[in-house]
Amino acid sequence: MSLRTDRVRITVSFKRKEGISKEEFENFWLNEYFKLFNSLDIVKSNILKYEQAHANEVINKAIAEVGLPVAPFDAQATIEAATFEALMAVFTSEEYRTGRRCPVRQVLREGRTDVRFQLCNHH
User: Fold this and answer.
1) Rg of the chain over all Cα atoms, to the nearest angstrom
2) 8 pLDDT exceeds 60?
3) How far lies 106's CA from each of 37, 98, 101, in Å?
4) More exposed terminus of the chain, fewer Cβ within 10 Å: N or C?
């Protein structure tokens, strides 16, 4: 097996704001943020793939019961582009920075430790 070098991925982990139910968070993330993110021209021209994963409490409990660590996040987004520069074009663009902030702050916890980015090549 070898790593692909023709694509890069960024995985972002999210924690919901206190007072926001799991249902409210998931509804926003699946039905509102997804549409907002994918409607941006900068995203349409640079992003090849966008996927979401949401925490599953039953599975997390089973993982914890066997002694494995459970990540303290409610969701993850994996975003794929052809190059690192294409990813950064999205996240540094004025369109992204102004278009996403207002509604996202309603459901995400404030603070640097609650949103984490990890960039990797994949196989």
Assistant:
1) 15
2) yes
3) 16, 15, 9
4) N
